[in-house]
Specification:
The protein is an alpha/beta fold and 430 residues long. It folds into 3 domains: 212 residues, 3-Layer(bba) Sandwich (FAD/NAD(P)-binding domain); 103 residues, D-Amino Acid Oxidase, Chain A, domain 2 (2-Layer Sandwich); 53 residues, no CATH class. It has 15 helices and 19 strands. Strands 1, 2, 7, 8, 9, 10, 16 and 17 form an 8-stranded mixed β-sheet that branches. Strands 5-4-12-13-14-11-15 form a 7-stranded mixed β-sheet. Helix 1 packs parallel to helix 9 and helix 9 packs across helix 10. The protein is globular. The termini are far apart. Bound molecules: flavin-adenine dinucleotide (FAD). The site of flavin-adenine dinucleotide has 40 residues, from helix 1, strand 2, strand 3, strand 11 and strand 14. Flavin-adenine dinucleotide binds next to helix 1, strand 2, strand 3, strand 11 and strand 14.
């Protein structure tokens, strides 16, 4: 450790990225301080919330046994909404819940999960202090040497910016400028309490099994979507919207969310539940295109959301597993590289090795696909229009299928030309 340094590493933010890094560094005997502005880890964090277990397995396979899971996801669902109509597709496969634990996924509640992971990092020897906001970085001759929190200055060999989306640390280091509204979504979420039995009956789940549902067409034409996850004794229901489009459409987030809750296919699932938590948070939506050009500066590494590591495919959101991976990569770089000036490049090499950067690069196509505005209104309307015609039996001579589909296309406001263009874009993007 350098003369001035009080710690080998200071981690700003006790989310999955920061805690994964702190866990591994402390396990290797490093003096690590984690500073969290919330009153407890997870207190300020919002997620849909499903996490893929492989990332925790990579952090430490022993953690899988008593992880703070809610339910194991046994049902992958996609719901398409148009007005008061809906289609729900339910993919159920025994392999989702059987066999290798590390290949499965779980619903979680962040207040519980983050506290659990922080406890594990503390067990390894990390110091986690909460209720303190880091205000600035201390920089000397272009190198980050510590942080400032209120009146206090703290020094370390390396600082890990794990302070999430719109990272103040990355801004102070000059690695990002102020957030651009087209690169983030606003997520709102309620946690609605219900007895475990009721949840299992309503979602047709066995004990401890869970559903992960993405909802398309619930944002009234605004770029975004909804989600619903079953926890042990609650349901996480929410929506993500692009903020500038909300303004353009003259809509209120609250009103759209209330309509989703009251939808005839959603309300019976949450009926008689008690809302025990309401939260809102930004979520990075730009994927690889939105990542900072540089993920490090001498003495500083960006991990998790602060590095823009989120993938939204439309049928799933991945941020927490990528946050864990980047925390692992950062710790591996710090532990493997003795020359402080080379930790940044070593971190990039670890991000490649752990398959994170290649995965981010591949995600570009999803963003191109999700940029098509018709996905949020016309296509859901078309899908439901086709279903409506398929299932209508009224004793009259039915029209042939082609005619019915053409009718549904016209009703949805789409043109065949637009569909061809979108189809081509879709094929190219994947
Ligand atoms: C609505 C919504 C739904 C989502 N759904 C999913 C999902 O289902 N699955 C999934 O994998 N991902 C999901 N994500 C994304 C996921 O939540 C994030 O990618 C993930 O939390 C990133 O982890 P992180 O550790 O980088 O940052 P965070 O979890 O945001 O943690 C950052 C921490 O830093 C602290 N902090 C910030 N500034 C300071 C400061 N100046 N000083 C001290 N502490 C500070 C914060 O309080 C926070 O605890 C969702 C996100 C949203 C908003």
């Amino acid at each position: 450790m350098g003369e001035e340094s009080q710690f080998d590493a200071i981690v700003v933010g006790a989310g999955p990225a920061g805690l994964a890094c702190a866990y591994l560094l402390a396990k290797a005997g490093k003096a690590v301080l984690v500073i969290e502005r919330g009153d407890a880890p997870g207190a300020k964090n919002v997620t849909g919330g499903r996490i893929y277990a492989y990332a925790l397995n990579l952090l430490d396979k022993d953690l899988l046994d008593d992880a703070a899971w809610e339910r194991k996801v046994s049902h992958e669902e996609i719901m398409i909404i148009d007005g008061n109509r809906s289609i729900t597709m339910d993919y159920h496969d025994p392999s989702l819940t059987e066999g290798d634990e590390s290949l499965q996924s779980y619903t979680i509640l962040r207040a519980v999960f983050d506290q659990w992971l922080a406890d594990k990092a503390e067990e390894m020897g990390a110091m986690v202090v909460c209720g303190i906001r880091v205000d600035d970085l201390i920089q000397r001759e272009g190198r980050v040497v510590g942080v400032i929190a209120g009146e206090d200055e703290m020094y370390a060999e390396i600082v890990i910016a794990a302070d999430g989306v719109n990272s103040l640390m990355a801004q102070k280091a000059g690695l990002i400028s102020d957030i651009k509204k087209e690169t983030v979504g606003v997520g709102v979420k309620e946690v609605i309490e219900l007895p475990a039995k009721t949840i299992e009956e309503r979602f047709k789940l066995n004990q401890n099994q869970g559903s992960a549902r993405m909802i398309l067409g619930c944002t009234q034409g605004i770029h975004g979507g909804g989600f619903l996850y079953t926890n042990q004794e609650s349901i996480s229901l929410g929506c993500v919207f692009m903020p500038q489009e909300i303004v353009q459409h003259g809509k209120q987030v609250h009103d759209i969310f209330q309509e989703l809750k009251m939808h005839p296919a959603v309300y019976p699932l949450i009926q008689d539940g008690e809302t025990v938590e309401y939260s809102a948070h930004l979520v990075s939506e730009a994927g690889y295109r939105g990542m900072p050009a540089k993920l490090y500066k001498e003495g500083l590494l960006l991990v998790g959301d602060s590095a823009g590591l989120v993938i939204n495919t439309g049928y799933s959101i991945r941020g927490m597993d990528l946050a864990l991976l980047s925390g692992i990569a950062a710790a591996r770089a710090i532990l493997g590289e003795s020359d402080l000036s080379q930790i940044g490049p070593a971190y990039l090499a670890e991000l490649e090795k752990i398959c994170l950067l290649p995965t981010m690069r591949l995600s570009v196509g999803y963003n191109q696909l999700l940029d098509i505005p018709r996905i949020y209104s016309n296509y859901p309307q078309l899908a439901i229009g086709v279903m409506q015609r398929l299932y209508k039996v009224d004793g009259q001579i039915p029209q042939n299928l082609k005619k019915q589909v053409m009718e549904a296309i016209n009703e949805s406001g789409l043109t065949v030309w637009q569909m061809l263009k979108d189809g081509l874009k879709g094929v190219r993007s994947i």
